[in-house]
Structure formats: structure tokens, C-alpha cells
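Sample intake sheet
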Amino acid sequence: MMAARTIPSMGSEQPANREGETGAHAVDRVAAAHDTLEAERARLRAELAATIDAPGQMTYGSQAAAATQVFEQQRDLALRDRSEQQLALVESALERIRHGTFGKCVRCGEPIAADRLEALPWAEHCIECALLVAQGRR
């Protein structure tokens, strides 16, 4: 028999999508998003726990090898930065679930489309606001 799992409080309002869906379907969507976000958080934490190797000692004639090592280290550092940014988005989405604001745009307060949340459960903006933010209009 499976143990029941508990989803953090969703506040007094039930989440809704653009079609005004509420109730059991919305709760199921939030539960699915919560599971996805928890899995993504675990993956990112494991990725960030991995060490990045520093370039080895450079000897005469090994400039190409040293350049490759430096490139790989820089690439790994850039990927780590991206993972840290992604982890912050995931943590923020989990916090919105706990506060009952998951599924609402943090800019305009309108519901985020269910399809968008299914694809990007850490999305914090509706499509319209995401476009404005991408264009530099906060």
C-alpha cells in the first residue's frame, strides 16, 4: 500500500488556469508540478555538488593541452552558473506552491497557461509578461 504524500498548502485560493479550471484538476496539476520541481531540485543539487577540476600544471610544449583544460574549466563554470540560476527558479516555484501563488504571473498576477506550467513548472511569468521581460521591460 502506498503512503499518501502531502502537498504544501496552496493558500485559500485554488489555482486556476486560463480557462478558469479549479478544484481537483488544478490540485492535480500543482501536485504534478511539485513532484517535477522536487526532482529537478535534486538533480540540480547533485550537479552543483560535483567538483570542477582546475587546469593541471603547464609544461613546455603543452600549451594546446593547457588551453583545452582552461576552456573546459570555463565551460564547466558557465554551466554551474546556469545550474545555480535554474535552481533559484525551481526554489522560487516551490515557494510559490507553499504560499498558494503558484500558477499566477509574478508581474501581472494573471494565471499562467496550464500548458506553459506543464512544460516549464518554474515559469514565473505568463507569456505576455515573459515577452516584455525578455525585451527589457520590467
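Comment: DSSP finds four helices and no strands in the chain. Helices lie at 24-49, 63-99, 114-119, 127-134.
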